[in-house]
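Session log. Operator J.P. requested a structure for one protein chain; no other inputs attached. Running the standard single-chain path with token output.
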Amino acid sequence: HILQDTMGHILGEEREKIAIQCHYETDFATEEHYRLMSILKNLVMNAAEAIQSGRGTGAIWVEEHLVGEDLVFTVQDNGPGISRAEQKKIFDPFYTSRNTNTNWGMGLYYVRQIVKSHLGHMQIKSAEGKGSTFIVMLPRYVPGRQKNQGGRDET
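Structure written below.
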């Protein structure tokens, strides 16, 4: 499953300080497995970095489930949260609130581009001192299904 594949490669030595819990309802077909792994990797790494910049230990919850025909990924952390002002900038290319020697500020911009290229949507729920939740909604890929001229699915 994509969550197991991705989580196994992400934190490395930081795994001892940050607990990751994963829940998924179903496996799914995708034409671009590596891009979805990239979405999850970026969101989980950002959550881990946020936790480390705060108290140093914490937890990340990753969930995947179906809502109608959409595949929904949720990445939630108990880090320091993101202010409303910063939430307006975090998807901008080259924006970072961290050390620019090690972070170029392209992760969330890249995630958003992948989500858009899959005709999906992305939301953030966050408050300072209360952690952050990123929600990614993607239309589920069904092999053999195509869109007709009216935009409706056909099999």
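Operator note: The two ends are 25 Å apart (CA to CA).
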